[in-house]
Specification:
By secondary structure, this protein is mostly helical. It has one domain (26-166). Helices cover 58% and strands 0% of the residues. It has helices at 25-51, 71-76, 85-93, 97-103, 105-127, 141-166. Helix 1 (25-51) packs antiparallel against helix 5 (105-127), helix 3 crosses helix 5 (105-127) and helix 4 (97-103) crosses helix 5.
Length: 170
């Protein structure tokens, strides 16, 4: 009696989301170069944030970079959707996690993602391949809803924080 042959093992192809092909020499160089540029850009942002003194009000830290005041804040006396982002980055760079969250929750999250980008860029530069992180779900309706809740929720948080703790801003 013959023994039954095992069914063939089906390995998904590269196009079907299977194992990644090893990069060719020219594309490996470009990939490493892109990884290095991502790490350099993210590192520059984090080093700049580390050099900024966070404004105690949680607003207007970007003025230390020579930028003009927030026009939205000037005209409406309410913070704009990105008010406090620079302060959050500066506070995170100084290790003040709770201060960063109070300044702008979305900014605190973005600073962590920036650090992750630096690490991923350095890994790509060193290894010649991109870390296997799947972000496709962010483009789906639930993913976009999460992004919207974080962004608009952080803006609402900032408005309430300014009105409750600091009064109406100039």
């Amino acid at each position: 009696m013959d023994s039954p042959t095992p069914p063939p093992v089906i390995v998904p192809t590269y196009a079907e989301g299977g194992a990644r092909r090893p990069p060719r020499a020219a594309s490996a160089f470009r990939l490493r170069l892109c990884g290095g540029l991502v790490a350099l850009a993210g590192g520059a942002v984090l080093v700049t944030a580390r050099g900024l003194p966070p404004n105690p009000s949680g607003l207007e830290t970007h003025r230390a970079l020579g930028l003009p005041p927030c026009g939205f804040l000037l005209y409406t006396r309410l913070p704009c959707p990105t008010c406090g982002m620079t302060t959050a980055f500066a506070r995170m760079a100084h290790g003040d996690v709770f201060g960063a969250i109070r300044a702008q929750p979305a900014g605190a999250v973005l600073s962590i993602l920036t650090l992750m980008g630096v690490v991923g860029g350095l890994m790509t530069l060193a290894c010649g391949r991109v870390p296997n992180v799947r972000w496709e779900w962010l483009g789906t309706p639930p993913g976009l809803a999460v992004l919207a809740v974080v962004f608009f929720g952080s803006w609402g948080w900032k408005i309430v924080d300014v009105l409750m703790h600091r009064g109406a801003t100039p």
